[in-house]
Amino acid sequence: MIGGGLAGTALAHHMAGAGIETTLIERFDLNTQASGSNSGSIHAQIPNEPFSVNGDDWTRTFAPTVRLMLASIALWKKAGEELGVDLEVDTPGGLVAARTQGELDGLRRKLVFEAEQGLEGHLLDRAELRAVAPYVSETMVGGAYYPVEGKANPLVAAPAYARAAAARGARILTRTPLTALEAMADGGFRVETSRGTILAARVVDCAGAEAGTVAAMVGLDLPIEAHPIQTSVTEPTAPLVKHLLYGAREKLTLKQNRLGNVLIGGGWDARRDARGRPVADMHSLVQNMRLAVDMVPDLASVDVVRTWAAVVNGTADWKPLLGEAPRVPGFFLCFFPWMGFTAGPVVARAIGDLVLGRVPEVDLGPFLISGR
Ligand SMILES: Cc1cc2nc3c(=O)[nH]c(=O)nc-3n(C[C@H](O)[C@H](O)[C@H](O)COP(=O)(O)OP(=O)(O)OC[C@H]3O[C@@H](n4cnc5c(N)ncnc54)[C@H](O)[C@@H]3O)c2cc1C
Questions:
Q1: Which of 12, 204, 362, 367 is least surrounded by CB atoms within 10 angstroms?
Q2: Cβ(210) to ligand 1 under 6 A?
Q3: CATH number at residue 23
Q4: With a 6 A CB cut-off, is 141 part of the ligand 1 pocket?
Q5: Do residues 193 and 244 both lie within one domain?
């Protein structure tokens, strides 16, 4: 597999567990890109921003991802024990706070789509929101509560999968960029790397924001995007933000980790420097912090200690690209945009099952690239 983020390491773990000779190549060190730089939110709900922008037709076609997210959360809950590592998985619930009656009406409509996919969610009026989350500004008119949502620690998850994969016999090559990929006429692939050639029966593209570049090497043109975005973290503070907290329409997510730091994000744009590296954008930072303090007034007295930027893998329609490429037998995509930290465990397992010729436990139907 190409890529040592969560998708690649979890897939390597699954494949090696099935007794398959497995090699993972990563151009840098493991977990140095999106999987190790994200905000650690474990989402299940339909994201609020595209829901409010794109309307019901989009929502209907996106909604089946909720089932993938729910299956992934179930795997997250077992993963720590399976890997023998505390992944700091904690699911106190997700809470979306609405500023206006219009936003609350939107949440009510979204809950209907989500319930059809088996996601439990509850609409809260102003008093109920205050009772559940007294730390949220009393100017909020209500909200929605999703008991299954929460957080995990992105710094430990992919390395834990990689160690467990190596223990099962997977070969993990870091600082080994893929330089060329050739589908051979009689089947299989020539995988050219900075350390030489590897012959592989099958290749799985787990290259995140670079997955389109890798796919292009075998002639595929996929609608994969790469966007620098940023997250901030505060100094440790006493327990304050109990839930994974969201704004209903604006870009805002908040959560507090085990050490007491509050992570503040929501997908605000970062910039690229002259060398193309992602760097934090001050304008985004100011707007993000303003929204955070507006939502949780007690944060006004807590200092932000760091803001970092990383490149997230995206698609314009937010839908994943999964499965075997129709015109390149043996070449698979394991690509989940925007929320691939949450979805990593389930898509890795499902794509692994496809590679092994097994029927995945989850329905990938709407997201198979063969159907595009
Ligand atoms: C700031 C930020 C916050 C986010 N917050 C959340 C969140 O709270 N919850 C959530 O669910 N998701 C979140 N995401 C999204 C999530 O992090 C990603 O969708 C997910 O990590 C993608 O995992 P991946 O393994 O597919 O990609 P990556 O983690 O990007 O891994 C891909 C790997 O492929 C390697 N690679 C690329 N090209 C080559 C090559 N030619 N040769 C060898 N290796 C190569 C890269 O170096 C990289 O290590 C966030 C993302 C960012 C950037």
A1: 362
A2: yes
A3: 3.50.50.60
A4: no
A5: no
